[in-house]
Each structure stands twice: as structure tokens, then as C-alpha cells.
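User: If you would, consider this record:
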Amino acid sequence: MDAHLGSGAMFDGIAPRYDLLNRLMSLGTDRLWRRRLVEVLAPESGQRILDLATGTGDVALEVLRQQPQAKVIGLDPSRAMLLIGRAKVARRKWGGAIQLLEGDAQRIPFPDRSFDGVTMAFGIRNVLDRPAALAEMVRVTRPGGRVCVLELGEPPENWKGRMARFHVHRVVPRMGALLSSGREYLYLQDSIARFPAPGEFVKQMAAAGLAVDAPLALSFGSVHLFTGRVPQGAVA
């Protein structure tokens, strides 16, 4: 994989069209996926939540929609995405409860046990050192806190999975390349193929120190929601 394809530079180029492309290519279901992610996270009043690969802030905003008394910090390597996200946040009544910052999931710039929960939607696939990012998520989450990761993956080999596979491998990259006038969304197909199977990624989360639930398959298995909890008594 070209290093820059997983970096902020790639997303800087597609930032102005990113939200529209997501709506079109997912047929609008990306909003439902993010809603489910936050429902599983179950943020409580007063909690601090870290959203990695926050992009234009959709997950951060969904956290505040479901729990207006939470505090959210979003971290992303793309300055252009963050600029759009900050404009979106400023238009919402909860704007003061969300802070969007430039940063890297492999080197999270916060102390140990700083957050009650961590989310990452459609970002772990693009991280070059995935074990380092998972270890960082565990480090900054308090014991008992949840780490929730939403990610695209290869659909299963059944008739529903074959329909989803056709959409992911044929429709999505071509639609993205056409609408974005670039090669960035052609990268999507390869990055999905390279992402580990759900069972293997669960092992990677467990190796980082998380107690991991069974992954939740969404949209015929083209998307999975992975949830782990930092064990009580975990040493930072």
C-alpha cells in the first residue's frame, strides 16, 4: 500500500466531497452504522469520548446527539477534513462540547486513562501500524471503558454477501472515482481486501489488552462493529 494513501494527504484531496460520497456509495446507510456504533458505546452524562479518524465529525456529532452531556474530542490527520468538521460542529447547538484536533491514532497525544470511551469509524483499515493504534486506544481508555471500531470488510460467501461484495468491489470504487475525479476511492477496494477477517481482527484487539465481544455484522456482513472493554484493574 502506498504510504500516503492511508495518510491525511489522501483525505485532504477528497474532503469537500467526502460526506456526499459516503451518502451515495452507502445508499444512506452510513448514518445508521454510526448511530449503531454510538448506541453500543452508550456514552453517559459527563463522560469524555475520543473519536479517532473523526474526519468531518459525524461520529462526534452522533455522540452528542445521543448524549448531549458528554464531551467529545475528535482526532484526525487530515486538516481539510477537520476544517469541514469544525464548520459542521459550529452550526450545531452542542458545538462547545466537541473539539476537533489534528493527530495520529498511532500516537494519541493524551495521557493514560484520559477517556471513558474511544470510537473509530472506517479508519483502522487505513492505519499502517494497527497494533500500535489498538494499544494506544487501550492506553487512553479508563478501566471498564469501551473501545468501539466500525469497519468495512469482505462480505461472507452467501447470496446476500455476494450482492454486498459486488457493490463494494464494483460499484463503490467506480462511483467514487467518477465523482471524485481521482484514484482515492479505487484504493477502497484493495484496502477492504487487505483488512483481516472479523475473527482475526478480534484476536488483534484481544492482543492489545481488550476483552472483546463477538463482532456485530451489519449490511449483510459488508460492515462489522467490533467492541472491546478495557478490563477493570488494567495497568496503564
User: Anything to note?
Assistant: Confidence is low (pLDDT under 50) at residues 1-6. The radius of gyration is 17 Å. The chain has one domain: 3-15+26-154+191-229. The chain is about 40% helix and 20% strand.
